[in-house]
Structure to design on (152 residues):
C-alpha cells in the first residue's frame, strides 16, 4: 500500500486503530476466501471464480482492492501474456497467520459432527497443525487476559 493509500484509509476512520485500519482492507468475507485460495496455490481469475462460486463483479472488485492495497500483485502470465496471474505479496503472505487463526476458530466452534472440513499439516514436524499464537520473546501461548494495553 502506498503512503497515500494508507493515509486515505486512516483518514476514513474516527480512531487511529490498527484493527479498524485492517478492516478497511479486509472486512469482507470474499476477501478472506480469495486469500484462502491464494494460500492454497490458486493464481488465476477463472480458478478463483470456479472454486468460490463468486459473481464476476464481486471477484473483480475484490481482486482490484487487494492489488491496490498491495496484498496481491498482478502480472501477465509467463506462458500466456493475455492471462493475468495474481500472487501474494510479502504483505499478503503476512496474512497467513490471520487466515489460519480463522480456520482454527472455525474448526473449534463451528465444525459439525464430521469434524473440521480441512486438516492442515505442518511440513516441518509432520504433525497436524493446531494454530496457537505465541509470544515471540518467550515462546509462551498468548491469550486475551495475558496482554495489557496502552494507548499512545
Amino acid at each position: 500500500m502506498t503512503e497515500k493509500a494508507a493515509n486515505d484509509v486512516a483518514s476514513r476512520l474516527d480512531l487511529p486503530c490498527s484493527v479498524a485500519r485492517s478492516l478497511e482492507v479486509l472486512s469482507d468475507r470474499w476477501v478472506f476466501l480469495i486469500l484462502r485460495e491464494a494460500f492454497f496455490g490458486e493464481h488465476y481469475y477463472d480458478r478463483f471464480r470456479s472454486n468460490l462460486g463468486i459473481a464476476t463483479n464481486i471477484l473483480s472488485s475484490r481482486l482490484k482492492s487487494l492489488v491496490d492495497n498491495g496484498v496481491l500483485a498482478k502480472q501477465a502470465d509467463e506462458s500466456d501474456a493475455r492471462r493475468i496471474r495474481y500472487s501474494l505479496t510479502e504483505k499478503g503472505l503476512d496474512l497467513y497467520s490471520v487466515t489460519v487463526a480463522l480456520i482454527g476458530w472455525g474448526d473449534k466452534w463451528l465444525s459439525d459432527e464430521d469434524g473440521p472440513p480441512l486438516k492442515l499439516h505442518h511440513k516441518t514436524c509432520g504433525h497436524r497443525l493446531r494454530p496457537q499464537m505465541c509470544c515471540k520473546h518467550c515462546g509462551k501461548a498468548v491469550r486475551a487476559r495475558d496482554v495489557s494495553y496502552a494507548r499512545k
Observations:
- The radius of gyration is 18 Å.
- The chain has seven helices and two strands.
